[in-house]
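User: I need a structural model of Glucose 1-dehydrogenase from Pseudomonas cavernicola for a docking pre-check later this week. Nothing fancy, just the predicted structure tokens so I can convert them on my end. Input:
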Amino acid sequence: MHIDSYQDQVVMITGAASGFGELLARRLAGMGARLALGDRNAAGLARVAAELREAGARVVAEVCDVTREAEVKALVEAAVATFGRLDVGINNAGILTPMKSFIDTSEDELDLSFAVNTKGVFFGMKHQIRQMLAQGGGVILNVASMAGLGGAPKLAAYVAAKHAVVGLTRTAAVEYARQGIRINAVCPFYSATPMVTESEVGEKEQFLAQGSPMKRLGTPAEIVSVMLMLCARENGYMTGQAIAVDGGISAF
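Assistant: Understood. Predicted structure tokens for Glucose 1-dehydrogenase:
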């Protein structure tokens, strides 16, 4: 990846107030990207945006609940109104549902997981694609999970929603490949983001690490490095892929 891979690229990131989204924003700002950041956490979003602007980055930030299509659309429109285009859309916002048996999972929990993890990605893709069609191309990256490629006991609602993200990614990638829009998904194993460490899954870190051939979890920086590779201009022939970043688990 060239040092100027993202120079002056306009990049939209949802879930930008913490975790992968915050780290992506910081890495991209350092590479010269222009950023459109969204998160439902207004205080966290304001902090990240202020720190990036103080460091010289060009940033527009909008409070954005990805379960509300109008707010996702508004973030895309803010990117275009401020910077004139949208080169990269990263649909990163997500939630991890409580661990419980399949038969104890409630309809409300299923609905919430789909609202954030699936519909939020769908809304992002829908309005990003519309803009990219108008401007002649672009790149979209959806943050799925290893739970979108296989089973994850006691996380039925999360698994179902993340499998849907992979399906949406592949479908849209095929549909818009000839229009110059690349669409991929990244599928990390558990990593030490706040979403994981502040959940009951975080309490099982050592147990989960033993399932990896590397005998450890990935770091957020390692996952973000793959995300940057997937979106880079040089990576022009990859689309419709769901890339596992899992320390070798899927090799079994």
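Before docking, keep this in mind: Helices lie at 19-30, 42-54, 69-83, 107-135, 156-176, 194-197, 205-209, 220-231.
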